[in-house]
């Protein structure tokens, strides 16, 4: 892993609400990405929320990346944008059924006499 100027968090970062089994076991993050999130996630979250102020140019650039995610340059910035997209974005749901439902009248014909007596 390359040397970074980001501060380590005071404690390891976990998101047990969205990723209860851990980042790597979710299948969305690699082991290296999980390591970056757990080491720097608390600092990144603090910078994003405004609780922490940037102390160097790399942290200042991260603040700019939050406004324009396409300008992410470092691995940490890209991993954080991926985390934000997966944790706060809409969850995709895949189904085996198609979107278009067939018309019920085409599939069913009432050739049998009615069992209800009419008065």
From TrEMBL:
Q: Compositional bias (Acidic residues) spans?
A: 105-119
Domain of life of the organism encoding this protein: Bacteria
List every stretch annotated Disordered.
Answer: 95-119
Under the heading InterPro entries, the entry gives: DUF413
User: Which family does the record assign?
Assistant: Belongs to the MaoP family.
Identification of the protein by name: Macrodomain Ori protein
